[in-house]
Amino acid sequence: MNEEVTRSGKLTKSRVLLIAVFIAGLTTLGIELSASRLLGSVFGTSNIVWANIIGLILVYLTAGYFIGGRLADRYPRFITFYQILAWAAFASGIVPIVARPVLLNAASAVELLDTAVMVGSFLSILILFSVPITMLGIISPFAIRLSIEDTKDAGKVSGRVYAISTMGSILGTFLPVLVLIPWIGTSMTFLVFSLTLISIALFGIALESTRKAFYYLLLPLILIVLSLLVLQGPFKTTQGQIFETESSYNYIQVVERDGIRYLLLNEGQGIHSVYSQSEGATYGTWDYFMAAPFFNPAPTELTDVKRVGIVGLAAGTIAKQYTKVFGPIPIDGWEIDPEIIAVGREYFEMNEPNLTAYALDGRWGLKQSERRYSVIGIDAYRLPYIPWHLTTQEFFQEVYDHLDSNGVIVINVGRTMNDRRLIEAMVGTMGAVFPSLHLVDVPDTFNSILYGTVKQTSLENLVDNFIAMQDQNYDPLLLDVLERAITNIQPIPTTEIIFTDDKAPIEQLTDAIALRFIFEGSMDTLR
User: Fold this and answer.
1) Model-level pTM greater than 0.90?
2) What domains are defined for the chain?
3) Helices 130-147 and 2-43, interaxial angle, to 10°?
């Protein structure tokens, strides 16, 4: 009888241990993905941010594996294992609580472009992850040590523990992004992982000592109380903010100032859509998309524009302007984030009956389309990057194949005052597909608009079309846009750069431009 009880007790301990390993693996990857969103809402989701997150988390895990092996050999006890697990869970849950005031200050620094505070805040947040991730790294080697009863089974036991931990990590990769963050937000996602891990730790401690389990109940209570005190209210307090939410892809804000609404994503440095009931002109990048058809020979009529495609629909600014000027022409818009489409309809009056919004990746959506377009506009920045797959020769060939005989592609390209390398790369790549290119700088911005035409065209066409419109009943917004485009025409640079699906180092190029801009002190010119 005693042997059966002992065997049953060992089986229970073994099962609980493996469950703990599974949830620890889930929590580790869940925290990594949630960390990217915690930082992304302030610092963006650039490769630099991701490299720091992944690199430092791997450093912390490495330290945890090393420490875990040492501790397990010195204190091979289940109670020690679960106590470490409980503190790891608590440290994971405390991250967003401690980070909240730092991030709020960092958000203000990003808005003011205060480089020192931004860098300091960024490093501070990353350091916060050192304790929970290192402690989570202790779990697997410790669990292996506790599971080995015979050294001849060491390989089998190790394989089982790491397999179960990896299975948890797989779930932890998808659960926060697809379910928890859109449902309850980033901070609460940390809390859910933390409380789940604490629950299994408390159960394991209770198997060893009911009295100690009672003491450890204080950890989840402290987390819940602190969360209620600290994590209430909007995450950002941007001036004029009327809405915020988190989706599977973005932290989304709607801000209203002087009657004009702006769509901000993630760190909030870029404006992705703008809407005003009283004015059609935005005096931003969106206006210049309307000039695209008029690079064709004069006279180009409004009726020559049959259908428009927009890759990077956002909240529909370009679609709204095309509808205002060209009438209810069919417009297909691709926006990968369905929550942004919903925000566009709710806050930006994106309800034009001629607009069909598709919640799809732009390249995939365009590839699947059987239609041809007079204009295809690409405005798909995820600041500061254009997604790499929208910058290649193969993509531009797909665009070309979906344009009609007078079709024009128009794309928003970033630059700085002294660095136009990204423009050169786009010119080289688009020039491998389109016979004529035209370039316009948008005043007082870091943006240029690049046009490519299916036919051989010249800049004189734009001027001729503008002149031909003067005595006719065209929308003043269109005439204003054409005049601004003509005024800000730039020469096309000479380049041999061509990005392909096999090699498109857009992120490295953008990082180099951004770092040069920061280190040259150019941010001071923006204040």
Assistant:
1) no
2) 2-230 (1.20.1250.20), 282-526 (3.40.50.150)
3) 160
